[in-house]
Amino acid sequence: MQGRLIYLMGPSGSGKDSLLQAARAPLEAHGCRFARRVITRSAESVGEDALGVTPDEFERLQGEGAFALSWRANGLAYGIPREIDDWLSAGQDVLINGSRGHLEVARQRYPDLLAILLQVDEAVLRQRLLARGRETPEQIEQRLARSRSFAVVGGASAATVAQEHICVLDNSGPLQQTVNCLLHLLDETRRCA
Ligand SMILES: Nc1ncnc2c1ncn2[C@@H]1O[C@H](COP(=O)(O)OP(=O)(O)O)[C@@H](O)[C@H]1O
Ligand SMILES: O=P(O)(O)OC[C@H]1O[C@H](OP(=O)(O)OP(=O)(O)O)[C@H](O)[C@@H]1O
């Protein structure tokens, strides 16, 4: 049986990377795999354990078909390595850090993916992004503006979310609470699948 692609998305600063790190051990214990993203962001930059490449290297990798999914946002290019297809074919679940803007395309390739939207109030988001200190204040405002522009999934009204088959996770509280909710959600949706 094919594994399930779990597509975690949400605005910059909503806590995707923190959640992936905190949930990694319990999920790996259940055989779930985690994809390491390839990003045209310098390797020393704060944040996730991504492979930093130059724009030229990214182009070359993309040309070679190295990515199962790839997109551009925030002035960067992001790639999800093709090996996730081997994991899925082997029946393993795979959790990826996705993009709201790329969800529709991702769904065309993986119709059964489980889309999870991580949400936090904008004021908290701004605070967390400033505290993280990876982007300049201008870049942070651009990311917040990008978030507001997501009428479909960024605003996340209950009706829209239901229609788009998106599960919403709130990360305004303690991270461990969000980890517990994610584990519960994965368990529940597995039983319904
Ligand atoms: N539940 C939480 N409570 C407090 N701070 C959090 C929580 N989740 C994440 N953070 C902090 O918010 C900042 C942004 O989180 P991060 O995981 O980098 O978000 P993303 O990957 O979505 O951009 C980080 O500094 C992180 O430590
Ligand atoms: O279409 P969107 O949902 O806006 O997503 C676009 C990209 O922005 C985020 O990455 P970013 O470089 O901001 O890293 P972060 O999420 O770790 O902040 C997200 O992980 C996506 O790769």
Automatic annotation (TrEMBL):
Record-listed ATP binding positions: 10-17
Pathway(s) it belongs to: Metabolic intermediate biosynthesis; 5-phospho-alpha-D-ribose 1-diphosphate biosynthesis; 5-phospho-alpha-D-ribose 1-diphosphate from D-ribose 5-phosphate (route II): step 3/3
Reaction catalyzed: alpha-D-ribose 1,5-bisphosphate + ATP = 5-phospho-alpha-D-ribose 1-diphosphate + ADP
InterPro entries with a match to the protein in the record: GK/Ca_channel_bsu (IPR008145), P-loop_NTPase (IPR027417), PhnN (IPR012699)
Gene Ontology BP annotations: 5-phosphoribose 1-diphosphate biosynthetic process; organic phosphonate metabolic process
Domain of life: Bacteria
EC number of the protein: 2.7.4.23
Domain Guanylate kinase/L-type calcium channel beta subunit as annotated: residue spans: 2-190
Keyword 4Fe-4S assigned: no
Family annotation (SUPFAM superfamilies): P-loop containing nucleoside triphosphate hydrolases
Pfam families: AAA_18 (PF13238)
Record's keyword terms, sorted: ATP-binding, Kinase, Nucleotide-binding, Transferase
GO molecular-function terms, A-Z: ATP binding; ribose 1,5-bisphosphate phosphokinase activity
Role, per record: Catalyzes the phosphorylation of ribose 1,5-bisphosphate to 5-phospho-D-ribosyl alpha-1-diphosphate (PRPP).
Family: Belongs to the ribose 1,5-bisphosphokinase family.
UniProt cross-references to HAMAP family, sorted A to Z: PhnN
Protein name: Ribose 1,5-bisphosphate phosphokinase PhnN
Phylogenetic lineage: Bacteria, Pseudomonadati, Pseudomonadota, Gammaproteobacteria, Pseudomonadales
Gene name per UniProt: phnN
